[in-house]
Amino acid sequence: MTVDGTTAVSMSGLQPLKSLFAAPDTVDLPDRVKAIIAAEDRASEHVIGLVQIGLGLVLWCLYLIAPKPIDADVNMLAPVPVALSIYMVFSIARYWVIMRQSTASWFVFVSILVDVALVIGLIWSFQRQYGCPPGFVLKAPTFVYLFVLIVLRSLRFDPRYVLMAGLTSAAGWALITLGAIITSPAGSVTRSFKEYITSSQILIGAEFDKIFAMLLVTALLTANALRAQRTLVASVRQQAAASEISRFLSQGVADQISRSGTLIEAGDATERDAAILMLDVRGFTPFAAKVAPKDVVGVLTSLHARVIPIIRSNGGVVDKFLGDGVMATFGGTSVSPHAAADALRALEQILEQAIEWERELPNLGVSEPLTINAGVASGPVVFATLGSSDRLEYTVIGAAVNLAAKLEKHNKASGTRALFPIATLRLAEQQGFRAKSTFKQIFNATVAGVPGKIDLCAREI
Predict the structure, then answer these.
(1) Which of 150, 195, 215, 361 could form a disulfide linkage to 201, CB 3.0–4.6 angstroms apart?
(2) Are 159 and 226 in contact (CB under 8 A)?
């Protein structure tokens, strides 16, 4: 293979390592997803900061309650309490910074270096304060807190910090081992495990085991952090997408999808007793032809801001927006014992808001009269999934849907604002509805597209 070829292979072999050290925010993600991940990381950094403060307090308590040699220097300016105090001050200061603002990567890296340096300095200070041989520090149980620092960094969804903590801890212990060897008198290094255990002799193999264990734990936690990071990114991406998509679906439909125990297929259908509410803006078509599209959308948005909350507060679900119209269902997506009552209660509230909205139209720059018309009907419907395998839509189908639509259109011919069958009113009253408005009764009405005669309730303009 050519030199160039060999170089190319070597560089490609380093790609996984290079990608490991790449900052998470360089991933091609939408800003909203990055913001969620950043919030999770910041929350993790808060936990790490609290644990580090707790660690300092534990070490202080252990130092205070541990028996001291008679000849040991135990005043507060001795090396050990000084090292512990520095660690506590640094941990509190770091947590204060974390609480006030997001921490940059360089701050976390510096924090890791200082953490390891302080623990190494604390361990090294033992032999000075207690006047023991240098090899004594290699047997200090405080050594295990280096593992705590490594594990702490796995709370962040960033393998770089785990790797940094592990490599720094291993390097720190290698330095403290080398320092112990250099400063020890001749003959302090032994090959006898028994001498190592029962004296201050130094067994290089034992220290190698500690360093190797650190590196092994670091490698495993780094791999785990990398997997956790990828899982988090995928999960947050899906969560953000689902959250955004759910805004295009009614709450009832979104709940139906999320609660489904099986894969939803086209043709799935459930029959229910429901009530249907149809709304439409009379005079909207000629108005929309004369004004800019942006103004048309603004007028519709102002109407929806009033209407949609009323529908939802009464247990309704917006099935679809029909241009300037709205179709809502009550008891369609889920069984409701008072669907008709909810629909008529919502209708009364919507009509009140409709009158206020129509009065405010001049403030929106609308000079032409616009009138909200409504139709309500109740009865059996089929809540069904329509479409194909790659494009599905929930909707309701049935005679009640058709009747509500025809009644809404019939308002123009009858000169009314809202229409619904007297039978629907009777059913609603059985379900607890009490009308607050006055509705005119129209008997034996003829409605286009509806066979036979029908008794109606009407709200006049």
Answers:
(1) 195
(2) yes
The DSSP result for 340-384, as a single string, is: HHHHHHHHHHHHHHHHHHHHHGGGGT--S--EEEEEEEEEEEEEE
Q: Which tokens sit at 414?
A: 């009858």
Only one residue has tokens 């809404």, namely 408
Give the CA count within 13 Å in the CB-facing half-sphere of 54. Answer: 9
Secondary structure tally for the chain: helices H, strands E:
15, 8
Where do we find the tokens 């597209």? 449
Would you say 114 and 64 are in contact if contact means Cβ atoms under 8 Å apart? no
Q: Please, what's the b/e burial string for 373-401 (b: 16 or more CB within 10 A of its CB; e: otherwise)?
A: bbbbbbbebebbbeeeeeeeebbbebebb
Q: Reply yes or no on whether the pLDDT at 358 is more than 80.
A: yes
Query: Are 317 and 201 within one domain?
Result: no
Domain count within the chain:
2
Highest mean pLDDT among 12-26, 44-58, 108-122, 237-251: 108-122
Does this model's pTM top 0.85? My answer is no
Last residue of a domain, one of 245, 279, 310: 245
